[in-house]
Specification:
By secondary structure, the chain is an alpha+beta fold. It has helices at residues 7-30, 45-58, 87-98, 128-143, 159-170, and strands at 67-74, 101-108, 114-121, 148-152. It is elongated and about 85 Å long.
Length: 172
């Protein structure tokens, strides 16, 4: 059965709707816009120190200057869930990695193919939440046959030791 609305009721409801719409527009336009500030640096001091060591290590004669090093690369830009998952499983797997990043990514200089990923583990990696993240990253890299090299954060590094670890991992 159709509902009949008289002219005055229609005008009243239209006026209410109009007032609500105007209020919403005013509220949205007067709300503070999103504002951001720039970080002081891409890396923490510890990451910056280690980045320089890694750069020196990959420039060692053993590597013939064939690698490039990138920092803070989103995991989902390096790995993606396999195609054999249904849509929901794929989305769940993707969501688990989409907001995480690798500390460093080592790529072939010519093709930019990812050769290995490198994680610098500081004392935060002793926390349960970070350990759960590390397990996820370990499993994801293993399932993708992507070498993951972990280094413990230190005050200082031996360039030969870092070079040897990289060389032994990459030549196996």
């Amino acid at each position: 059965m159709p509902v009949l609305i008289n002219h005055s009721t229609f005008l009243f409801l239209s006026a209410i709707l109009f007032i609500c719409l105007i209020t919403l527009i005013i509220k949205l336009s007067s709300s503070p816009s999103l504002q951001y500030k720039q970080h002081q640096a891409l890396f923490s001091p510890a990451e910056n120190t280690f980045f320089k060591i890694l750069l020196s290590a990959i420039q060692a004669p053993a590597f013939n200057e064939k690698y490039l090093l990138f920092g803070k690369v989103r995991i989902a830009d390096v790995l993606t869930p396999r195609n054999n998952l249904n849509r929901q499983q794929w989305q769940i797997a993707f969501n688990k990695i989409s907001s995480k990043h690798f500390d460093f990514v080592l790529c072939d200089k010519q093709t930019l193919k990812v050769i290995a990923v490198i994680e610098l583990d500081d004392k935060s990696h002793q926390r349960k939440k970070v350990q759960a993240r590390d397990k996820l990253v370990n499993k994801a890299c293993a399932s993708a046959d992507l070498p993951l090299i972990r280094f413990t954060a230190k005050k200082g590094y031996n360039i030969n030791e870092v070079t040897n670890i990289l060389h032994s991992t990459l030549s196996s």
